[in-house]
């Protein structure tokens, strides 16, 4: 097991102003910043416990500020904040890791933010110094862009997305089709039984939802989380007492631990069994919210940490 690279992205969209010539305005989100900060801290602690060196990048857009220094567009002395959650900084960070990671390393990217309705693209933070967003297109990261950039990084990779319609990021493999993008059971069956063999993939995707909304936990008393992310944190052994500085907390024994390892499948299994929302629509309660997480298909699993 090699080094661990962590990119945790959290965007609350509170620095978007309301209106100017009918520009795009995203809804504010409350759970995304706690999601990113606590996942970042938890993975850091687990990496240390597994005796794997780690390097982290916490990309945030938090609060109402939209001055050039906050946005990372300041061109005076220095280069502004490179930890701002813009699309440019994300791609820059991925390129940096691409130049450093080796075959034995693990790269984990997490995203808590908006996903575009029906198409699922990640909505990164704006970089307009007047606070208005003239066009959403420049902020979007498509599945193809993210999967391509992550695929260029050597070693094992895991993408974790807590956003609406995030299932569109789950890639097809040699042994499976996307259950979001391909709706025919005959196609899935034919793909599974065709002649191609299984190759162990080095990129997995774990998402909060399929082709539907993801939700924030309404029961939090001091800060919010995504329903998916709070269960993911629980799977990793995270317990954040109210009012306690997260830097002082050590995760407990991860419930997702299988023997001596944590795998992608062990996280997925725990989330499906334990998240607060049901994983499917209930015919007896048709108005009830539901949220179905997805993971990369195929018969293979990937070890993330070994203790």
UniProtKB/TrEMBL annotation:
The chain positions of domain Peptidase C14 caspase read 21-237
Q: Which domain of life is it from?
A: Bacteria
**Any single Pfam family the record assigns to this protein:** Peptidase_C14
Its protein name is: Caspase family protein
Species for this entry = Sphaerochaeta associata
């Amino acid at each position: 097991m090699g080094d661990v690279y962590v990119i945790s992205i959290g965007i609350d969209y509170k620095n978007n102003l309301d209106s100017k010539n009918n520009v795009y305005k995203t809804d504010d989100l409350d759970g995304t910043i706690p999601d990113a900060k606590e996942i970042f801290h938890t993975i850091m602690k687990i990496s240390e416990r597994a005796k794997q060196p780690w390097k982290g990048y916490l990309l945030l857009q938090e609060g109402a500020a939209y001055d050039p220094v906050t946005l990372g567009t300041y061109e005076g002395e220095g280069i502004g904040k490179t930890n701002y959650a813009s699309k440019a900084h994300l791609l820059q960070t991925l390129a940096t890791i691409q130049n450093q990671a080796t075959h034995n390393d693990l790269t984990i990217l997490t995203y808590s933010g908006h996903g575009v309705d029906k198409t699922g693209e990640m909505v990164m933070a704006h970089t307009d110094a007047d606070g208005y967003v003239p066009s959403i297109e420049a902020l979007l990261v498509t599945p193809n862009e993210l999967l391509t950039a992550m695929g260029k990084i050597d070693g094992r990779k895991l993408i974790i997305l807590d956003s609406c319609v995030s299932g569109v990021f789950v890639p097809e493999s040699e042994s499976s089709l996307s259950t979001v993008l391909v709706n025919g059971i005959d196609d899935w069956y034919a793909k599974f039984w065709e002649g191609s063999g299984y190759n162990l993939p080095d990129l997995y995707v774990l998402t909060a939802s399929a082709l539907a909304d993801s939700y924030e936990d309404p029961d939090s008393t001091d800060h919010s989380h995504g329903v998916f992310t709070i269960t993911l944190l629980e799977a990793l052994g995270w317990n954040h007492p109210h009012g306690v500085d997260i830097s002082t907390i050590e995760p407990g024994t991860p419930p997702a631990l299988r023997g001596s390892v944590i795998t992608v499948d062990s996280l997925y299994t725990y989330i499906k069994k334990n998240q607060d929302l049901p994983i499917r629509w209930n015919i007896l309660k048709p108005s009830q919210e539901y949220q179905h997480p997805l993971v990369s298909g195929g018969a293979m699993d990937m070890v993330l940490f070994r203790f």
